[in-house]
Amino acid sequence: MQQVKVAGLNPIESADFYYLRHYYFYKMTEKNLNKPNSDIPSQIVMSGIRPTGMVHLGNYFGAIRNYVKMQDAFECYFMVADLHSLTTHPDTKELKSNVRRVLAENIACGLDPEKATFYCQSHIRETGELYLYLNMLAYKGELEKTVTFKDKARQHPENVNAGLLTYPVLQTADIIMHRASYVPVGKDQEQHLEMARNFVVRFNHRYGEIFPEPHAFNYNQELIKVPGLDGTGKMSKSENNMATLYFADEDDMIRKKVMKALTDQGPTEKNAQKPDYIENIFMLMKLVCEEDVISKYEDDFNNCSIRYGDLKKQLAEDMVKFMAPIRQKTNDILANDAYLVEVMEKGAQKAGESAKKTMDLVRNAIGLNYF
Ligand code: ADP
User: Which ligand 1 atom sits nearest the alpha carbon of residue 234?
Assistant: First the structure.
């Protein structure tokens, strides 16, 4: 089956939306011409975010920014992945408040529950059933090779559970529950999406063409990884706290974290190559600073006059300018619990309808219809 390279396109603004929709419609139509089932949808988007802590800059630029753009152009399903969080966070004392926080933070970032279906994973009971069928199509060897599984097993040797091993299977169930084709995610999810395509190809091959192949998606060509401020790893909800900028951080905490970012004495040769940790800081500037500010510091770096203290002060102020309004909006949304409950209920109803339709197709395709 031909693979559509979604992440390699550059469809940024509205003209590109037009192009993207028609490109995929054309691709899916082209594929379906030779397939028995021409009913595979091509305009559906699905993604999720775990309630394992506070939403951070990496979640925003890797995922949520794309949710906000895509909700105007596609049928979108976004969820709070509470079941996924149980694989690494078995203690559920804070789950209820974390779920609300993640809902509020996504909405404060621009996700509109009137445009997209926004729901909690555990409210869609069909997911467990689809996960079970997909588990028969996933092999132990490939699951054990997954980079995120190996990382998590290394970090938490006391809790290497089967849920962690089959995390990409559950993720596939979530995506294909709505027969989605595009999955806006950060770079860390690339391998999971490759696995999702494999499971889908196996399902379609064994039981009939029901599902489109899902692809990781980012509007800016490559999938991105927002690095931690300490020069290692990525920003993350539950690890690397001082190296991660959370939308819940107060202004002074944002300044403190940015000022502590790893730098050095500056280059001693003109036009030197930037070390990774300096490259990371420039990458963060590109996310929130004006172009002229970035090019000034690029020039300063290239002629060895860069002052990292000044650069970090500027970056800190631009971060505060970008992040503080989202924090304030989040707090307003969190103060209105009835609204959040309504969002969850409406989301569960809409996502539930979609799930029921898919599961009818799945049970029929597998042959679990005896009368
Ligand atoms: P976390 O790793 O912070 O717990 P999740 O696993 O809930 O985040 O991922 C939610 C979304 O955010 C995913 O699409 C993931 O790829 C994206 N994401 C998480 N961290 C980063 C990062 N540092 N840079 C880019 N995207 C990220």
Answer: 23
65 C-beta closer than 6 A to ligand 1: no
Q: How far is Cα 336 from Cα 110, in angstroms, rounded to an integer?
A: 17
Q: pLDDT tens, position by position, for the chain (371 residues)?
A: 333 444 333 333 334 444 454 445 444 444 433 344 556 666 899 999 999 999 999 999 999 999 999 999 999 999 999 999 999 999 999 999 999 999 999 999 999 999 999 999 999 999 999 999 999 999 999 999 999 999 999 999 999 999 999 999 999 999 999 999 999 999 999 999 999 999 999 999 999 999 999 999 998 778 999 999 998 889 998 777 899 999 999 999 999 999 999 999 999 999 999 999 999 999 999 999 999 999 999 999 999 999 999 999 999 999 999 999 999 999 999 999 999 999 999 999 999 999 999 999 999 999 999 99
Q: Cα 223 vs. chain centroid, distance in angstroms?
A: 10
* CATH number assigned to the domain with residue range 6-217+337-366, chosen from the 4 options 3.40.50.620, 3.30.70.1170, 3.40.50.850, 3.10.490.10: 3.40.50.620
Domain 241-333 is in which class? mainly alpha
Measured in Å, residue 276 CA sits from the centre of ligand 1 at 20
Q: How far is the CA of 349 from the centre of ligand 1 (A)?
A: 26
Rounded-to-integer distance, Cα 155 and Cα 172, Å: 24
Nearest residue (CA) to ligand 1, atom 12: 59
pTM: 0.89
- With a 6 Å cutoff on the Cβ, whether 59 touches ligand 1 is yes
Inter-residue contact 76 to 31 (CB < 8 Å)? no
Phi, psi (deg, nearest 5) at residue 47? -160, 170
In the chain, the N- to C-terminal Cα span, in Å, equals 34
> Would the CB of 49 count as within 6 Å of ligand 1?
yes
**Ligand 1 proximity of 175 Cβ (cutoff 6 Å):** no
Q: Where in the chain is the domain with CATH 3.40.50.620?
A: 6-217+337-366
What does DSSP assign to residue 60? Answer: I
